[in-house]
Amino acid sequence: MNAPFEGIGASMKRKEDLRFISGHGHYVDDINRPGQLYAYIKRSDRAHAELRGIDTAAAKASAGVVAVYTSADLTGIGGLPCGWQIHNKDGSPMAEPAHPVLASGKVRHVGDPVAVVIAETKQQAKDAAEKLVVDYKDLPAVATVTDAVKPGAAQVHEGAAGNVCYDWEIGDKGAVDAAFAKAAKTVKLDLTNNRLIPNAMEPRAAIGEYDPTTGEHTLYTTSQNPHVIRLLMGAFVLQIPEHKLRVVAPDVGGGFGSKIYHYAEEAIVTWASGKLAQPVKWAAERNESFMSDAHGRDHVSTAELALAADGTFLALRVKTLCNMGAYLSTFAPAVPTYLYATLLAGVYKTPAIYAEVKAVFTNTVPVDAYRGAGRPEASFLLERLVDVAARDTGMDRVEIRRKNFIPKDAFPYQTPVALQYDSGDYVSTLDAAMKHADWAGFPARRAAAKAKGKLRGIGMSTYLEACGIAPSKVVGSLGARAGLYEVANIRVHPTGSVTVFTGTHSHGQGHETTMAQLVSDQLGVPFSQVEVVHGDTSKIPFGMGTYGSRSLAVGGSAMVKAMDKIITKGRKIAAHLLEAAVEDVEFKDGKFTVAGTDRSKTLSEIALTAYVPHNYPIEELEPGLDETAFYDPKNFTYPGGCHVCEVEIDAETGVVSVVNFTAVDDVGRVVNPMIVEGQVQGGVAQGIGQALLENAVYDQDGQLLSGSFMDYTMPRADNLPNIKVGTETTLCTHNPLGVKGCGEVGAIGSPPAVINAVVDALSDYGVRHLDMPASPQKIWSIIQGAPRMAAE
Amino acid sequence: MPQVTLSVNGKSHTVEVEGRTLLVELLREKLGLTGTHVGCDTSQCGACVVDVNGTSVKSCTMLAMQADGAKVTTIEGLAKPDGTLHPMQEMFREHHALQCGFCTPGMVMSAIDLVNSHPEGLTEEQIRHGLEGNLCRCTGYHNIVKAIAAAWPLMHGKKMAAE
């Protein structure tokens, strides 16, 4: 009987599920250390104020309080570092103001931490924090990018004149201007990309622990990349060498980008546990998540497209203002530049592109990468602009796209904005999506809806993204302060089972399953005999973590490299045992065989020999079967596809219902179809959330109005449709697995498809564009003919 | 400090609590049952749902003292002692209805009450409406809805009316 198929392409059920469905997950807040104290962070309730003093006496005298710290106590501690440095048009570096762990001198956003209270219980810490008297002198605040760049606007940092962090450009301005000057038609669109709050369901948490007998610190934290936290916090903030600092990110309840960054609370609990020689735990309440987790998006842009008379795209010009918030978060400067403007070619062969991006500081929570990070902003801008171009020039929305697609025989394709795409077939994803969505049958559905008094619309986006982050040399030249390769250690144990130690981190993606399938496929080891370990710097050699849909494309490639080393060594051991030449030994399906004979040894036999041999070429070959490999991707990967959305609008209420959603994506080779489908569905749900429901709102004084789940509209089960997912595959040409990544496609492709459908549904009302979220109020006002409420 | 006596997953406990202690704090901090999660502070997310006397309850919205004398079942108490999973747990795994797993305990507990309270059958629309009190950020709910529909016949020992 053949063994069940468990390798690449099998929808294996997830290894991690049993502990999660039975309540035995192991999240940071589930961990309690002996003698543990509790930290509560006192946060600013002002958007911008001088911090004139904090009276801690009453808090210190409060029941159960062990310590109260303010910035004055944090002597010798560095600020939170930023991982990227962008340069201005004139070559000067961006403004990079200090980001203190606890606010010092000034507070700059609601939620800025001003003090920490540590007590025996959580409630005691919270009660004592109420007794802190903070002397603020309010300063004028600025919350939006458009206000921040106005003359006379409140200044967030002294070292950032006009609130500008950087003023950056990419592309050939001269070529674009020339193309616009002679274009038959031009189209212009102003649009915003709404600010979002990631809201992973698990709030952030951190526990610091210190062993005075060894001098070793341990930090348990809700992180997507524990080694990065160890590097940043150890080297830049607390000056703890790596061998005395262990960072553990156990089960983590979702991240979506928000748990990439090094946050103040991690440094606070690590430092305080050292000072007090007792473990210190901090766990965010959801209201703290809203005002301290990095937010996402928040762009205001103008986009212009120049077209030839036949609809061929000639040039694209984009001007974007983007919000950095009050301080630079770890990845923040890279998001609106190298993850956004470089994606403005999309799937189109537009020959000339020029983009200017101005990043500004405001008195709001720092903004950084959120699922898709820059690429959803690019796809929204481009796919809205293409629809508007079709409308303004009287062309069909589908035909204008087909006409301008990069053809499948044009790869590798060099865009005018730095990237070189390796593979893709945009016609195949478009055709498949239109077929699955029954695009051709839409007019009948629209007529049927009209008969029921509903407005029905259909829209699509044909999008592309760059992920598999990232080729180290390339990102280094773009301003990354570190390379972004990945590490895998594969240990074949003496009896043939395998442990994989990966530097990536799973917080919902199912790596324990997918990566085990990879090993099963390549080494011929049963799936049940493979264990994947992640999230602990004391076990894993190194790693850059999980974001940018990189885990399989970069981390999986590192695993392949390590397994190649295992096989190479195994062949040498097998050759010795089988008394054959190494060149004659082949490895297939878990067996080393002398070519053309039936003489073979299984991987388990080789492993046993490698560890406890009687007969081994010890002079020539090191025992053991344990290999580590580092993989630096040669290029980004370029998933893409077509999303089709169909909506129905209730004209009486303005409520939009998504009635059909079809996503057909090219994510390269698919290892576990079930998991890929789930990743796409989850991403699409976040994209529909952005398009219809979610919006982070500040008032003009910098108060966060959408600061709870009662004010910030998270997508719920009855807001969403079933999400049909299909894949069309072209392989990535530069990594050994041909994989491209699937974590972000859903959130990148879907928002413009939804808005294109909403605008289509409202075609009778003369609507040309609508900014997200397409709330009932906005739509109702349009229908009621109240143009003051309409976006345009 | 006041005392509360309650049965949790078939075991009786007497615990000292503060007047303000929430049921979820009692479960997580006093009894070490950390399968029940806290995802918000406004009774919106449903990660903390447990069964109290046969009804699903957001345990962040109930004082521990209100649970005096109650029979509480948490996610840890669903599987049989021999490890056999509850059909809802099985279907969540079968249909990939979880990713990060954080909302899952509350989602499973709510889903069981939803199915139990609809012996006549459940439409997709009813399932989606019934999940309104539980947030999931990972799955887009698609597979959760599928899992619940698949658990209904297993829990009621028959086919769904809609099938």
3D architecture notes:
The complex is a heterodimer of chains A (792) and B (163). With 792 residues, chain A is of the alpha+beta class. Chain A folds into three domains: 17-23 and 485-631, Aldehyde Oxidoreductase, domain 4 (2-Layer Sandwich), CATH 3.30.365.10; 31-139 and 201-254 and 259-292, Aldehyde oxidase/xanthine dehydrogenase, a/b hammerhead (Aldehyde Oxidoreductase, domain 3), CATH 3.90.1170.50; 299-469 and 635-789, Aldehyde oxidase/xanthine dehydrogenase, molybdopterin binding domain (Aldehyde Oxidoreductase, domain 4, 2-Layer Sandwich). Chain A contains 19 helices and 28 strands. In chain A, strand 23 and strand 24 (600-602) form a beta hairpin. In chain A, helix 9 (375-393) runs parallel beside helix 18 (745-761), helix 14 (511-523) packs parallel to helix 15 and helix 17 packs across helix 18. Chain A is globular, with a radius of gyration of 27 Å. Chain B is of the alpha+beta class and 163 residues long. Chain B folds into two domains: 3-76, Ubiquitin-like (UB roll) (Roll); 87-156, Orthogonal Bundle (DNA polymerase, domain 1). Chain B is built from five helices and five strands; from the N terminus they run ββαβββαααα. Chain B has helices spanning 23-30, 87-94, 104-116, 124-130, 142-156, and strands at 3-8, 11-16, 49-52, 55-58, 71-73. A five-stranded mixed sheet of chain B has the order 2-1-5-3-4, sandwiched between helices. The longest helix of chain B is centred in the C-terminal third of the chain and has 15 residues, at 142-156. The radius of gyration of chain B is 16 Å and the shape is globular. The chains are: A alpha+beta (792), B alpha+beta (163). At the A-B interface, helix 1 and helix 17 of A face helix 2, helix 3, helix 4 and helix 5 of B.
